[in-house]
Amino acid sequence: MTTPISGTHYGLTAGDYHATMASVGASLRTLEHRGRPLVVPFDADEVRPAYRGATLAPWPNRVVDGRYTFDGVEQQLALTEPARGHALHGLATWLDFEPVDRSADAVTLAATIQAQEGYPHRIDVAVAFSLDEQGLHTTVTATNTGSSRAPWGTGPHPYLVAGEGRVDDWTLTLPADTVLTVTEDRLIPVGLEAVAGGGFDFRAPRPIADTFIDHAFTGLTRGEDGAATVTLRAPEGTGVEMTWDGACPWVQIHTADRDIPELDRLGLAVEPMTCPPDAFNSGTDLIVLEPGASTSAGWTIRAI
Which residues pair with 295 in a beta bridge? Predict the structure, then answer.
């Protein structure tokens, strides 16, 4: 049987939830609760569009101009966002991950980022997906199996769906005090600003309407368990919630604006991140993995 172009697929079922993972990019291809989509899906036999559901590593978001210096050595990454001239969303998004553990409600997919030009480090990446009555849980673990210390960051790229309609129709709750402002043309980080009273202040739930968002947020309010939570609700009362642990002090929110009307603002990208955009240059919250060291980050998507 021919393998679909998005890779081998792994279906998980638990209670009222069903999810499908695609091996290319360790991607979340579908997630449903009682048949209701919680993320924007993509077809099994298509090239995954707009990073839907991909695992981002060894950096999330952008490295400006694809250029950075680490341990005194200047590196140049391939420019995978040609229109803006940046290296976007890491090196793992097109790797074909292999299963290392599998059950009816869980799968762990693993791949190795090999040392290469621009990133001369070897990192083993394991992405553990598990499904239960509380939703879909994901944990990304990185282990430095090379001989040099390595810069590292990670995050997911789901487009959440609250119910009927599109982004404009839904109400967002985003418990973030601070937004990272960026240049309009190339989305290069400029500086941090308080959201209070501005267009990016969603600390109290309010409709997204026609607001354009493609920004990173921090200063997150967390619960007693240390988790931060973004909530998205449709007018009819359905919704979806995403929580993540303290390993991710940042979250990128994107309203998925597209020039093609049928694809425009289909879902809200919610991307918890261990570091902000261009962390390979700023060093902000950048994880440095010593040889043999490991680090993990986790998040959960559930229906409400």
Answer: 142
